Amino acid sequence: MTALLELKNLKTHFQRRKTTIPAVDGVDLVINKGETVALVGESGSGKSITSLSIMRLIPSPPGKIVDGEILFNGNDLVKLSDNEMCKIRGNDISMIFQEPMTSLNPVLTIGEQIIEVLMYHQKMSKNAARQKAVEMLELVGFSRAKALIDDYPHRLSGGMRQRVMIAIAMSCNPKLLIADEPTTALDVTIQAQILDLMKELSKKYDTSILLITHDLGVVSEIADRVVVMYCGQVVEEASVDDLFEEPLHPYTNGLMGSIPSLDGDVDRLYSIAGTVPPPEHFPVGCRFAPRCPHAFDRCRNEAPALQRKGSRSVRCFLHDDKEATV
């Protein structure tokens, strides 16, 4: 497979007075052409900051990419100027945000917001861009696209607004689509429709997808590979089948255990003890050790490295050859 996007030792830190906050701390990630990769973890794990770093949308100050590479088609996005990044955003790399109402401009019609993207990136005339906007709205499932194009976002339901966001994101045939919790605010039926639509458009345009979510049910529906993040680091990476069949990291095990099941009679769902610590208070050793039921002395004093285990990776001393007897 050919790598489309490759993160190498990505570090994004924030400065708060005299405190450095390592929100993303040495992330390695590969997305191949035509592949869908899910980035999962609890709130505060660093998923969204990773995606904003890829798009070079980290507010500076207080945030800054302090180390690492973001290789897109072999070019390091970290080294590009703001003008060069503007040509890539919305064109080669598009992003769908969690809440479309905060992403869509309330004083512009749906059509104006799609037309603007097409005129800027594709250099289309206004008439050609309007026709393309209608086609995109039809593609994402609107039967009355010609009438909808002159509506304002507040007149649409949450699911319809999310479809509009997908139409805008896919209008320039991007090579990579970043979807940050695209179904969180939607009911279950609409969630399924949005996921099916994303899969369909990915195949149609051969677009790679980076799906950011905490919902493992969504992951099982759409992803080829899964990357699990915790406290700004990747703790496990595997194919979706391998991860669901045999999660290696205790944190991944905890996430799996918290999924509701239709089988069996359970009064109370499992939950991982404690909460994700804030970045300024990350533990010295393994960052999951204070919440881990398997933690031992080495975990509390030494930080484990991400190591390969066959076709997958895991950051845990339980899978270190040195601890084979533990």
UniProtKB/TrEMBL annotation:
InterPro entries in the cross-refs: AAA+_ATPase, ABC_Ni/Peptide_Import, ABC_transporter-like_ATP-bd, ABC_transporter-like_CS, Oligopep_ABC_C, P-loop_NTPase
Homology family: Belongs to the ABC transporter superfamily.
Iron keyword on record: no
Organism for this UniProt entry: Cytobacillus eiseniae
SMART domains, per the entry: AAA
Membrane topology value: Peripheral membrane protein
This protein's name: Peptide/nickel transport system ATP-binding protein
Domain ABC transporter: 5-256
Location of this chain's protein in the cell: Cell membrane
SUPFAM superfamilies named among the record's database cross-references: P-loop containing nucleoside triphosphate hydrolases
Pfam families in UniProt: ABC_tran, oligo_HPY
